């Protein structure tokens, strides 16, 4: 179904006919997703491991649940946007998990960036309950989540996609149907693998340039507009030179994504050696206390290494 069909479907819905939605997880991405669901008139119940984040949405009309099961119990569509496999397992299958409480016609939608093994296991658990599942990981960061400009990479059958598309539409720039469950997660890991390699390589390039007599602003503009240029290089050049590291994408999540990407590639006989190199740099940054900063803070690992070298 083309994007304009999603638009027509979404626009045609009235408040009374919009399906009820549960959203599990209100981190950097989930909070923006919740705002757009509320702004579009979807009845929304939210749950977050840290209750304070959920309570901020009550003034905008969200109901706050104490557990994932409570959030999911009355929802037609249950979305999860959490940090990793452990958090996803707890939200869906843990004590008071969402899956056991879902009604028979509801759809489970996993939007987090997760391992292929866990997505397969979760899909099997959903099927055993006789329910439907879609995976819909996203590309974009905090700004895109808040401005309804996310790209959803969907793995699902056509019927399930048709059911959830009005919900995804209000949060999205683009909805890509990539195949069955498992397909969306594969592309998301490939995407984040490529992003991590570019971020890590630019961090090293910037630290290199900072040790020369180059006019730094001129050199960076040349790289941004030349063959190496990309959207992520432009974003990283601004954040790394400003050294503020306001979170758009948490650094420790990129380290996690590289672990998942390496494992997914290895299962298909591909040695993603560049993921190993990027993961090593991100892991060093996490070990140095930068894990809760934006991923652009990885440049500080290279800068600190230079200072230590000079100091010796």
How would you describe what is shown here?
With 312 residues, this protein is α/β, with parallel strands linked by helices. It folds into two domains: 3-180, Rossmann fold (3-Layer(aba) Sandwich); 187-306, N-(1-d-carboxylethyl)-l-norvaline Dehydrogenase, domain 2 (Orthogonal Bundle). The protein is built from 15 helices and nine strands. It has helices spanning 3-12, 30-39, 51-55, 68-72, 85-93, 98-101, 116-128, 142-146, 158-169, 183-210, 216-225, 231-242, 251-267, 273-290, 299-311, and strands at residues 21-24, 44-47, 63-64, 77-80, 107-110, 132-135, 138-139, 150-155, 172-179. The strands form two sheets. A six-stranded parallel β-sheet has the order 3-2-1-4-5-6, with helices on both faces. The protein is globular, with a radius of gyration of 20 Å. The N and C termini lie far apart (62 Å). Mean pLDDT is 93; it is low at 1-16.
Question: What separation lies between the terminal Cα atoms?
Answer: 62 Å
Output the number of helix runs.
Answer: 15
Overall morphology: globular
Q: Name the poorly predicted regions.
A: 1-16
Looking at CATH, which topology of the largest domain would you report?
Answer: Rossmann fold
Q: Taking Cα atoms only, what radius of gyration do you get, to the nearest Å?
A: 20 Å
Structural class assignment: alpha/beta
Q: Indicate the percent of residues in helices.
A: 40-55%
Domains (count): 2
Query: Would you tell me the overall average pLDDT?
Result: 93
| Multimeric state | single chain
Strand order of the largest sheet: 3-2-1-4-5-6
Largest sheet: 6 strands, parallel
Q: Say which CATH homologous superfamily of the largest domain is assigned.
A: NAD(P)-binding Rossmann-like Domain
């Amino acid at each position: 179904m083309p994007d304009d069909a999603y638009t027509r479907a979404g626009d045609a819905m009235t408040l009374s006919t919009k399906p009820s939605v549960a959203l599990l997880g209100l981190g950097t991405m989930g909070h923006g997703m919740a705002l757009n669901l509320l702004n579009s008139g979807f009845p929304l119940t939210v749950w977050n491991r840290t209750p304070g984040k959920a309570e901020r949405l009550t003034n905008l009309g969200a109901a706050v649940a104490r557990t994932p099961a409570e959030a999911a119990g009355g929802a037609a569509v249950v979305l999860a946007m959490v940090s990793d496999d452990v958090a996803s397992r707890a939200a869906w299958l843990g004590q008071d998990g969402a899956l056991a409480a879902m009604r028979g016609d509801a759809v489970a939608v996993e939007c987090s960036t997760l391992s292929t093994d866990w997505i397969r296991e979760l899909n099997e658990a959903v099927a055993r309950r006789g329910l439907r599942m879609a995976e819909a990981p996203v590309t974009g960061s905090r700004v895109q989540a808040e401005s309804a400009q996310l790209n959803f990479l969907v793995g699902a059958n056509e019927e399930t996609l048709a059911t959830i598309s009005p919900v995804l539409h209000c949060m999205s720039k683009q909805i890509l149907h990539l195949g069955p469950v498992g397909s969306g997660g594969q592309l998301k890991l490939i995407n984040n693998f490529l992003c991590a390699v570019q971020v890590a390589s630019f961090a090293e390039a910037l630290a290199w340039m900072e040790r020369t007599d180059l006019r730094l602003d001129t050199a960076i503009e040349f790289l941004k507009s030349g063959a190496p240029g990309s959207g992520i290089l432009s974003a990283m050049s601004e954040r790394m030179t400003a050294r503020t590291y306001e979170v758009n994408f948490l650094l420790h999540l990129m380290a996690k994504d590289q672990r998942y990407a390496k494992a997914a590639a290895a299962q298909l006989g591909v040695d993603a050696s560049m993921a190993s190199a990027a993961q090593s740099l991100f892991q060093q940054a996490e070990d140095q206390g930068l894990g809760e900063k934006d991923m652009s803070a990885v440049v500080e690992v290279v800068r600190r290494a230079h200072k230590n070298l000079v100091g010796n």
